[in-house]
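[Meeting: bench + compute handoff]

Bench side (C.D.) handed over the final construct sequence. Compute side (W.E.) agreed to return the predicted structure before the next meeting so the bench team could plan truncations. Sequence as handed over:
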Amino acid sequence: MKVLSLRLCGKMAHFRRYYSNSSALSYSVPPRTTITGILAGLLGYERDSYYERFDLDQCQIALANAAPIKKSVQKLNLLMIKTLSDANGSQENHSQCATELVLPQNIRTGMLDYHIWIHHQDPEMMERLIRITHPSSPVYFSQGIALALGTAWNAGWMEFGGVLEGEAAKETRTRPVHSIVPARIVKEIAVPDNGEMNYRLVKEDLPLEFDADRRLTKRGKGNMIINLLEHPIHTQVEEVVKLENDTNIVWMQ
């Protein structure tokens, strides 16, 4: 199978948790629904018009941290904006909202760097994705959105990482997996004995798929084990996709 490799980069991100209410909590990584939204926006699809084209049966996506991350909660002073003239803060009813931000470990010199792998069952759609992200155009060629990491004020960019051959394989032993891993298929996690701290694992319930009414489907969310550092997770899972560059990934499902 063809697998498109991309890097999603930026200085700051906020991927709001769907159940977050009075405070705006963030996922550590972009959920699958966010990634499909970015891809659909680059292709020029209208909002809420693309969910069937990128459902779990047609589009497989894997994701990893390629740089260590941390979180910080800041109070944001939100404005009540009803007209363009209200953007100067003249409208009453300002509200302060505790907002969780995803940051690089070193905010001065670091960058967020999410490694994304994509395979689409439709060869024509796969070629379109390769064409708009290929470096023959400057960084990427958008037919719709300006790219951001979650909210619009977290501007970001995408980098082409190549097109790789991949092969799905059943697993019977522990091996390094370079992507985040669905918790339900994990049989064991091995702690490296090299004396280095290679893990900062968290488990998060990420949205994966919407229906036509922008509601989570029955299989539309899943618990994912995420390493907040850039190292692979040494784990045994039911199945991995082995890429030609000796990278092992697991699709978000």
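W.E. noted at the follow-up: The mean pLDDT is 89. C.D. will use this when planning the next construct.
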